[in-house]
Amino acid sequence: MLKRLAGAAVVSGVAIFGGAQAMDDNTTRDANGEITEAGGLGVLKIQPGDCLQLPDAVEVQSVEAVPCAEPHDAQAYASTSLAGFSGPYDEDGVWEAGGRACVSLFDGFVGRSYEQSDLGVDLFYPTAEGWESGDRTVTCMLLPPEGQQTMVGDMENADR
Fold it and tell me: I want to staple 59 with a disulfide (CB 3.0 to 4.6 A). Which of 14, 38, 68, 149 is the partner?
């Protein structure tokens, strides 16, 4: 079975949701940091556990974030740095390194390995412009099992 390991580049000025820029958080969060009211969420402000509606755009600045009890396309589970990735920007190389990093962090959030799970992985990674300005951050997201459009509730426990 093939699982989706997709990726979208993070860029300023494209696919802006809810009026949010890359550093904005227009959601309402409770004392634990969980989203209680939907809103635009800048991709540089996504936190592990946030539930998201993913845009069709390849390059995004913000997404629509929703409470995890509502239907959603993905759930962020990790943010990691590719600081050890050396050399000039290579989109395929950045995507592959980000994908490997996300797969290696999968078990810590889901409780089983990527290979043993029905969940997929998606990621946001820097564009060439972001890379040149020092951005090395990759955001890892869980996707519902293939064939399902959205998940309701916590994807972390979806396939246990």
Answer: 14
Residue 27 confidence (pLDDT): 93
Element (H, E) at 65: strand 62-66
CA angle at residue 127 from 147 to 97, to 5 degrees?
65
Q: Which residue is listed with tokens 């810590």?
A: 108
| Pairing, β 8-10 against β 59-60 | parallel
Provide the pLDDT for residue 157.
57
Model pTM score: 0.83
Q: Per-domain residue ranges for the chain?
A: 8-157
Instruction: Decide if 59 contacts 127 (C-beta within 8 A).
Output: yes
Q: Which of 141, 138, 113 is nearest to 48 (CA)?
A: 141
Q: What are the C-alpha distances in Å from 134 to residues 10, 35, 83, 127, 137?
A: 13, 29, 9, 11, 9
The closest of 26, 49, 29, 23 to 39, measured between CA atoms, is 26
Q: Which has the closest alpha carbon to 124: 36, 51, 33, 62?
A: 62
